[in-house]
Amino acid sequence: MRKTIAIIIALSMGLAAVAQQLMTSRQMPDMHSSVVRHAPQADGDLVPWGYCESDVQFAIGVNERTELSAAILISKDVLGIYRNADIMGIRFGVADDAEGVSVFIKTGDAGNLSFDLPNSREEYVGTVGVGFHDVVFDSPFRTTDEYLIVGYTGVGENFIGFDGGVTNADACYLCLNDEWGTLYDQAVSNAWGSLSIQLLLGGAGMPDIELSMTDIITSYVEQNHPFTLQGVVTNLTTTPVTEYEITYSANNGQQQTERFECNISSQETDTFAIDMPAFVRVGSNSVMVRIATVNGIEDGDASNNTMVGSINCIEEGCFFLRKMVMEESTSVYCGYCPKGIMIMRSLNERYPDRFIGISIHSASMGPDPMCVYDYDEDINYLYTDDGLPNSILNRKREYSGDPIYMDMYFESEMKYHPIAVADVRLVSVSRVNDRQIAVDVQTKFADDISGANYKLAFVVLENNVASAVAQLNYFSGGSPMGGFESLPREIDMRHNDVARGVWDFRGIEGSVPSDIVKKEVYDYSYTIDLDSKNALVQDESALEVVVMLLDPVTDEILNADKKAVGYATGIAVSPVPNDDVQVCGGDGCVQVVGGCDGLAVYDMSGIQLANENLTRGLYIAVVEKDGIKSVHKVLVK
């Protein structure tokens, strides 16, 4: 068990300013790193150990150049299998340039521990830039003391780096004007995470083989559907892992073992996948996974080999994967807005089936030619911060702010809220004429709901849009920013995911029934009139429609879908009925009551189909009877 000690630290008014005068730094996709070696590195790779993730998300300071120190507190018990390893150096990450930087280690026991102790090891580094830096000592550092205080000192403005991950109480210590204090409460409330500081460990005291069970990824499955159980293992030593065995079971049933070949270097991870039979019981089901062997032998430390998780089994027919919507306010006159473009592009590429990005151009910094004024005005009331760029995920105010945090928010939603309360699906999106788009939507809910107030909203997007005004780019010639650092200060570029209008921002009345029956499919048709919003369009072939299911009480987007605008060929999309003709759908085909002289069936994109073996959905039927042609929308059940 880890020992707990109490350290009484006075928080000065100066240090309080550190917490209050926060500046958030931009996250670097490819962080700068450097190695400062004071002697040849020890044989083998070094293993980093700390409370932080390998990123710098937040910059802390007092908005003026001053000397600051940052440190983490480490117990030998916390080091676990590394407690006998040599300390070969220190890795630290800063969020801005700093001068006169040095790293240090202080040591002590529970009876004499103090941040005012003299340094047991100190190495001067000098000037450093944004990113992580490895300082390798000229000789290994060893101590028999129970506690370590590890940190760095430097002079700069808002250069102290926090990782934006999990906040650890032992990883938030700062020193201003020779007074140490903890920013733990502020770090928790502002989600700063922990200080970007790590030990670099190595030497003869390192364990030979150590693979850790890090995570069980699978959290939701559908009833009566076989699934894949995924988990993550991490190599915690310098010995490469080439194969490992996983023993697993479900609901305390029979244990089975599966072998995985791999090539996992030090501190790298591997994701394993196990085919599992379907769960029958709706609700929580338990799974157990355990590392049985590594490289053909037992693992070095059994304490982190086993993980027991809970998988929520959703009732069959109610398993709806959620699509996440990021709405981002931007402008060609905003030099920092390319980071929003970079984030949206990255999420689109990595999660094409789960992410929908909407770029809302604003006129707040100048007459942006792509501005949609009502959308720009409406979205602003959801933001918790002012200025550009600004963004929000799923219209949750707690997920509002600089686009640089959308990646983190998206990952959080994917982990904790991946399943939607309802399915929303664009069945068809077809052009009626140059200025009208016919949309057919189906919704299906996982529960019976009486007195519901859900609404649908539609957004028209255009891709590959040329702007008459060049995009301003403040990242030109600077730190890595998704390639924008290599582009000029003013960019003649094409813009994607450009919002051309929203119908309507808070949803359309009557688009979803107020009394909902579980698993019942509800159809809704709507014609988007581009002229009603004076929507500008450059290329009709580059349009897409987004449908969003809204909860007007919370403003949250519960689910969404996106589909390219198609063309109806040879028929009108809008129905032109004949009251003397009755058309219905059943048994996989379209039927005309009383017969007809001619019948043609099309899907909602205008492609003619054989009138047999039709799947459930909406179709267009062109019926000829008594010399009159009529067009009907038909639901085949």
Question: What would you say this structure looks like, in words?
Answer:
With 637 residues, the protein is mostly beta strands. The chain contains six helices and 43 strands. A six-stranded antiparallel sheet has the order 7-6-9-4-11-12. β22, α4 (338-350) and β23 form a beta-alpha-beta unit. The chain is globular. 38% of the residues are buried. Residues 1-44 and 569-576 have low confidence and may be disordered.
Short description:
With 637 residues, this protein is mainly beta.
Protein traits:
single chain, 637 residues, mainly beta, 6-stranded antiparallel beta sheet, 5-stranded mixed beta sheet, 6 helices, 8% helix, globular, disordered N terminus
